[in-house]
Amino acid sequence: MDFVLPAPVKEALAKLEAAGYAAYAVGGCVRDHVLGMEPHDYDICTSAKPEEMQRVFKNERTIETGVKHGTLTVLLSGMPLEITTFRVDGEYLDGRHPASVEFAAKVEDDLSRRDFTINAMAYSPKTGLVDPFGGQADCNKGLLRCVGEAEQRFGEDALRILRALRFSARLGFPIEEATARAAHAGRDMLQKISRERIAVELTGTLMGAHCAQVLADFPDVLCAAIPDLETLVYSDRWPHTLRTLSYTPQDPTLRWAALLLEAPRPDRPDLPHEILQGLKMPTKLCETVRKLTFYPYRDSRNGLPPIRWLLMKLGLEQTEQMLLLLEADMLALRPASSEQAIREEYQQYREELHRHLDENVCYSLSQLAVNGQDMAKAGLRGPQIGQTLNRLLLQVVMNELPNEREALMNAVHQEKKEQ
Ligand code: ATP
Ligand code: MG
Predict the structure, then answer these.
(1) Residue 121 C-alpha to ligand 1 middle, in angstroms?
(2) CA–CA–CA angle 201, 205, 207 (5° rounding)
(3) Of all protein residues, whose CA lies closest to atom 15 belonging to ligand 1?
């Protein structure tokens, strides 16, 4: 196998080897290479201990990422490389963290602690591929399988259950039978895992091209991770949600919104926001999903509200997101035969949106031809001013009034007279 490593990776391996240590590229980058995909980063493992690594790279910039766990980040020609000492995990007592981490002598020991066979391969130009668990064969078959006994491996660290879903969703590999059985059986152990780690793996799963299939196969695991989803997942809205997800662009905010679009219930209208806050997701994502899933904005099945009205309510970025989400919702709702027509319809909405922007149409208070001072001069006071401006904006947005000073002031005076 000819594995073309980037020059800085080759240099790091060569430096470690020249100092008498074993060193390999390992994990995700080897998997991606075997699959013919471009790795997004390179991890290195070595027999050198952290102090020994520091000596080998004493002339380079290093960052002490996790020296206690044997990890040093080295910057070679601007490329950050995470270099970690071979290690084996001690016993897991709490289903989350090994009680101890021991350095290991051989790369095979290090590979044996890794989660899946496809992630448990190492490579160096000197040794070639090190693949003690059949990772290459599983890559070729397209199968996700635990290293060792799945039940034991999930018992050590339940996060691996969600990692299995994530890799399956990304690569489209089915999860091997014993691994899948252990994932279903071990799902309640996810309660011991921190919300933040769960959020990372779920976001990764949602971002996968094959996420709908995986969530269709593991609804119980999803509910163990997010118990508040149970009502949705076991309702007749769930198949539609999965279809919507498969039509939604691969963007974290949009995928979360698609998952949670049908989640609000009469008794819990703000469930999407509650769920995301519970997972400690970034505030911006929580707030955006809250708006994107808020019912009045997405009542597109009875006709999309005017684009300018959406712009007024949501601003530009969220209006664009809303159009993508509603398009996916409509595609999921309709028979495949009308896919083309729906895509064209939404393309037209996007063109209309950009026409509005090009023409600088008014959709916000700051663009309105009158302001608070004008209202005060007309004799309005206190909260009346804001209320009137907002009412005028709405009338302009709905094309009931032109955005012209005279027309707007006339409307204000008229209204005062009638009071
Ligand atoms: P990605 O392309 O998503 O980064 P990756 O394989 O690099 O994929 P990481 O989460 O970055 O995934 O982890 C790096 C490697 O560390 C994995 O390939 C795997 O070998 C190992 N690993 C990570 N997390 C665990 C875990 N919880 N249990 C066992 N091994 C793990
Ligand atoms: Mg990685």
Answers:
(1) 11
(2) 115
(3) 27
